[in-house]
Design a protein that fits this description.
alpha+beta, Nucleotide Exchange Factor Grpe, Chain A, domain 2, 3-stranded antiparallel β-sheet, 6 strands, 52% helix, disordered C terminus
Length: 235
């Protein structure tokens, strides 16, 4: 009996040791699992006021247009009168614009015609002179001793007629003979020593000069007198 009791005590002791080993293994396994599990991230603490606040959208109701009352008969009549006046002014403006455009075109054409036919009046004045020249040329073809004097008279008449026509349009002849030399009106072609005139005086005029009213068209070609002692004739 003593031996049987001792065996039971030893078996119970072994069973306790096995249970302790099993518990130790389970604890080690749980520690391994806990060590292999990913760490839980710590929540970052947010400071009040630093977080992004989303803008709040406030819905606004559309403003209602003010509803005007319908016009009364007097106002309606006045509106019709104003519309009629506006239409009248618009029609008048259109007519004025069309008239201004036509006037601009007409003035442009008149200006172009004036430039193209600027010498029309002068040519009309010269036509009688042209007729006289043609008559003189016809007389020259049948000239004889008895018609020399009449031909000379006819040519003088044609020259006088042409000169008078040009004077009527503003042509002025420059006659510088006997006058002092004027560079603004005369063109000196030579100097001639002489004792009959003072130095600087025009003694001959090979070609006449002309002015159109106050404008010089052609200077007169002149020969100017020079003292006979110290000047030589120079061309």
């Amino acid at each position: 009996m003593f031996a049987a009791g001792y065996r039971q005590i030893s078996m119970s002791r072994e069973a306790k040791e096995e249970n302790q080993d099993t518990n130790h293994i389970e604890i080690n396994d749980s520690e391994v699992k806990e060590s292999n599990s990913p760490p839980i991230p710590e929540q970052q603490s947010q400071v009040p006021g630093q977080a992004d606040e989303e803008p709040e959208f406030v819905e606004t109701e559309p403003e209602e247009e003010e509803q005007l009352p319908p016009p009364n008969p007097a106002e309606l009549k006045e509106l019709r009168q104003q519309a009629a006046k506006a239409q009248e002014f618009y029609d008048r403006l259109q007519r004025q614009v069309a008239e201004a455009d036509n006037l601009r075109k007409r003035l442009a054409k008149e200006k172009q015609d004036a430039v193209r036919y600027a010498n029309e009046s002068l040519i009309e004045r010269l036509l009688p002179t042209m007729d006289s020249f043609e008559m003189a040329m016809s007389a020259v073809r049948n000239v004889d001793e008895s018609t020399i004097d009449s031909l000379k008279t006819g040519i003088e008449m044609v020259h006088t007629q042409l000169k008078r026509t040009l004077e009527e349009v503003g042509l002025v002849e420059i006659d510088a003979t006997g006058l002092a030399f004027d560079p603004s009106q005369h063109e000196a072609v030579s100097r001639k020593k002489t004792d009959e005139a003072e130095e600087g005086t025009v003694i001959e005029q090979p070609r006449k000069g002309y002015r159109l009213k106050d404008r010089l068209l052609r200077a007169a070609s002149v020969v100017v007198a020079a003292p006979s002692g110290n000047a030589e004739e120079a061309n």
